[in-house]
Amino acid sequence: MKQIIQNYRTGKLDLAEVPVPVCSSNKILVKNMASLISIGTERSIIELGQKSLLGKAKARPDLVKRFLEKARKEGILKTFNEALGRLDNPTPLGYSSAGVVIEAGNNVHKFSPGDRVACIGAGYAAHAEYITVPENLCCKIPDDLSFEEASFGMLGIIALHGIRCARLTFGESVAVIGLGLLGLLSVQILKAYGCKVAGMDIDPSKVELAKTLGADLAFTSIEEFKNGTERFTNGYGADAVIITAAAKSDAPVNTAVEIARYGGRIVLVGVADIHPQRNEMWHKEVEIIVSKAGGPGTFDPFYENKGIDYPIGYIRWTENRNLEEFLSLAAEKKVNVRDLISHKFPIEQAKTVYGDMLEGRGGPYTGVVLEYPEDNKDVGLVRLVELVKTNKTNKTNPTNRTNLTNKTISVGVIGAGLFGKALLLPALKNIKDINLHTLSTSSSANTYHTAKKYGFENCTTDYNELLCNEEINSVIALTPHSLHAKMVKEALKAGKHVFVEKPLCINEEELKEITDVYLPLTPYPLPPVLMVGYNRRFSPHAIKVKEYLENRQEPLVITYRINAGFVPAGHWVHSGEEGGSRIIGEVCHFVDMLQFLTKSNPVRVYAERISGTNRTALNSDNVIITIKFEDGSVGNIIYSASGDKAYSREQIEIFSEGKTIVIKDYKETNFHSSGRKKTFKTMNQEMGYREELQHFFDVIRGKSGMNLSPEEIFCSTLTVFRINDSLFSGEPRSLSMNNV
After folding, report:
1. How many structural domains compose the chain?
2. N or C: which end of the chain has fewer CB within 10 A?
3. The predicted structure's pLDDT at residue 254
4. What range defines the domain where residue 322 resides?
C-alpha cells in the first residue's frame, strides 16, 4: 500500500510502498477514503525535519542538554550514534482521516466491517491507504456526511476542545485570532453554540471566508480588530479570546490580553510565545489557558491504546465524545466543512502537493484533502488466505528441525523500537556471514524504513509470515516485554533458534510454559539455541574480570550499585501486564552479571525496599537485594531511582582473596592487588551488544560453546520473581528450579 512518510533525520518525504498493517485485538483496520492535510502542523513537522543537525539542536535545546549528560556518562561516540539512530525514524504524516472498516479486533465491539468511520490521532489516522486505529479514536460517520467532510475530525475536535477550555455561556462574545482551518472551524462552532464572534487574520481571503461562514466581524488590521472588538462588546472587551494562529512572537497573546474584558479567558490553541505584559494582565486579572489537542484522553495510553473510557459522570467531553459532537454538527450543517476544502488530490500526487505547499505554489490552500483508490478489496480476507497458503506450504514440524543444521544463518527480526534501532540493529548489520531475511514490526512505515536502512530482504507487519518461512532459521525478538514469552514459545515451536531481549518473560506462569516447550527439544543432537539479551556479561570489561578471577578458590563478595533514574508511576514498565516491573525488566540484567562473575546460580534471595509515599520516589524502584550463591558467594544489588541523573549509572565492586576489582560504567575497570592498581579503559561505554549477537551466531555455527546456558537464563528469571516475592513478604526466598 502507499503511505506518506518523512525521514526525521534528513527531512526527505517519500510516498512509500509499505506492508498493510495487521489488525490487533484493540484496533480496527480501516481503508482510508480521504485524509486531511493539516497545513500548519505538518508544515512545522516537515520544516523541522529538513533542518540540519545544528538547526534541530537550536530548535530543541532540552534534548541537547540530555545528550550532553548522557555523553558524559557513556561516551560521545556511543551517544552520538544513538542520537542519530533516534533521529533516523520514519514519521508518518497525517492525523485525521475517514474510511471504511475492513476488520475489527477481538476486543472491539463498537465497529464491524463495512462501517464508515472518522479516525483521529497522530501515528494512527495517517496519510496511508490502510491504517489501524484504536477504538476510542474512531466514530461512525453520520449517513449524510461525506468521507471528505468527516476527514476534518481531528481539526474539528481541536477547535471544539479549545472552545470548551474557554468555559463559555450562551450569548458571550468571543474573539478569534487566526482564521486558518482551526480558526474557521472555531468561528462556526462558536456561532452554532450561540456566541457572538469577531475574527482577525492577515490574509484577506480568509477574512472574507470567515464572514461567509458566520463571523459577525472580521478584520485584517490589528488596530481595526481592536477597535471593532471594543465596539462589538459595547466597550466591555471580549469574554474570551481564542488564539488559533501560529506565531513565534508574543504579539497574539498581548493582543488577546488587550481586547479581553476584566476576568476574561484567553485560550491558546495554536502556537505563540506566552510572555504577556504582566501589568495589563494584573489590571484585568485575565486567565491564560493552553488547550491540549482534542480533549481528555489525549496521549493517555490507557484511553487511546487500551480503550479504557473515562466515565461520563466525571468527564463529559472526551476525545471520542468531542469527535461524535463535531461530526453531528457537520452532518446538521451547523458547521460547513465542504466550503473549507480548497484542494483535492489523489494520494499518488502527495509528494508533489507537499512540495508545492512548502514552496508557496498553487495556493492559496485552506483544506487540502487526499483521496484514495476506490478498489476496496477485503484485506483481512486476503491476508488470511495468504497466511493459510503459507502455512500449508511452509509449515514447520518441531520434530523435524533440519533448518537448525543449516550452515547459512538466515535471520528474522520481530520488533524495532528505539532500543533495537539505537543499539541492536546497528550491531546486527555489522555482523558478517548472516542473511538478514525479514523484519517484522506492527507499523507499516517503521518496518519499511527500518528494513531498507539495515538491509533486510523483506519486511512485513505480520510476524507469523516470518515464523512460517522455512528459509529463516534464527529469530531475534525485540518486542515489548509482555510479548517476549509468546514470541519465544512460537519461535521454538516453529523450529527456530531464538534470541530475545530481556526479560525472558514477566511472570512465573510464562516461565513454566517456556520450559515446557524448550526442555522436550533438548535431547536432539542439535537443540535450538535459546538466548536472552544479557549483554553485560559480554562486555570486554566483564570478560577481563572473569579472566582475572579464573583461578580463585574463595567465594566472592560483590556489590552492584545502579543509579537507575526516575520513571513515573504511569509508565508502561511498571504495569504488571506490559512491563512486569523494573525488578523483572531490568534487575534481571544485574542478577545475570552476578551469575557470570561467580560462575554459580542463586540459591536464596532477600530484598527490602524503601517505605515512602510511592509518589516522587517509587518504593519498589529503590531496593537493596542480597543474593546467596551455590558456591558460597554473596552479592548485594543496590538499585535506586532517586539519585542524580548526572552521576554514574552503574558500578560493581568485587572482593576476594585480598583483591578488589571495580567496574565503572563499563568504561573503566580497576584491579587492586598488593597495594598496586592496574586499569583497563575503553574509549566509550562498552556494554556488549555486538558481542552478544556475535556469540549467538557463533553458537549456532558450532564455533563456540554457550557462554549463557538455558539453565542460567531460567534461574535468573526465577530469581527476579523471588526478589519480588521477598519485597512483598519481607522474608528471604529460596530458589528451586524443580518448581518451574
Report:
1. 4
2. C
3. 92
4. 2-152+300-371
